[in-house]
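Changelog excerpt

This revision adds worked examples to the README so contributors can see how folded entries look when concatenated. The first example is reproduced verbatim below.
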Amino acid sequence: MAFIDILPASSINDEVRAMYARQEAHWGFVPNYAKVFCHRPEIMGLWAQLQIGIRRHMTKRRFELVTFVAATALRSTLCSLAHGKALMEFVPEEDVLAIARGDTPVSLSPAEVAMVSFGRKVARDASSVEAADVEELKRLGFTDGEIFDIAATAAARAFWTKLVESLGVEPEPPFRAMSSVLRQTLAVGRPMDFADRP
């Protein structure tokens, strides 16, 4: 499940218990990523506040597009699976696969194509972003505030992916329901052998 030990139920405090309860209420189970926060539940709370603050100003489609391209650029299998699945609420599976490969599906508007390119660039190497990249977003109708939101989404994903990947957090069993081609394509970093897991 992870490279670090997870505290047994008999050893967790009320703060961890409450954090687990919130996760279970949302997902129907306690995700593996939440369990590594048993050692620092206050950090999970701060992460939740950051995500709420960022998402407040974005549509869910925009948030998922930027998060997904950032996750794939950062080579996080866990986040690519999770947000690839979430993105299928807005685009078909073949388009999720195309975006993961760096292609441009027709379901994206010209503004979204530029946004995805910018988000991917922020995740891969933020120092490579130039004024021209931002000007292109403005030309396509994005406000300065919206450009901030896109950058913040991609940058925040870097924190999360590097934390959960460095601790060896494994994807959840529900990802088995995704098609094998989707699972294989979205295994952009750490390989996940679902076939060997009960």
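The second example, added in the same revision:
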Amino acid sequence: MVVDERATPAQREALLRIMTGQDTEPGATIFNVFASTLTKLHDPIFAPIDFQVDVAGRKARLVVKGVTEGRGEPILNPVTGAQHRVRIDMVGGFEYKLAEIGRGWSKTSGPIKMDLTDSYGQFAEIHLCQSGIVR
């Protein structure tokens, strides 16, 4: 878990409880579901987070120095180079209402190393409460 270093002690505690599913009804959010699958939880990282996203444009960038770097872009037609626009409308889902689909690049270091190149990416606005998606 990575929390922006600017968070106050109270904000850090609240965010860590949310991200570990402690303040969520069972199965109501992605955080609660993911937390239920973990056998080991690494210590949280408090660091500067550089994050920009344009959901509709399917573009994003994330940098946490020494931890992770990633970017997202639209899917391109391999013949014409034109952007494809693909969306998932998740009726009744617990993750999000609507996601734009794109491609992504992610690289992490630390205890969980990963390097994904031109992989799957989702761009979505997420509005959650302890009961799940705010509708």
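Reviewer comment on example two: The longest strand covers residues 98-108. Residues 2-133 form one domain.
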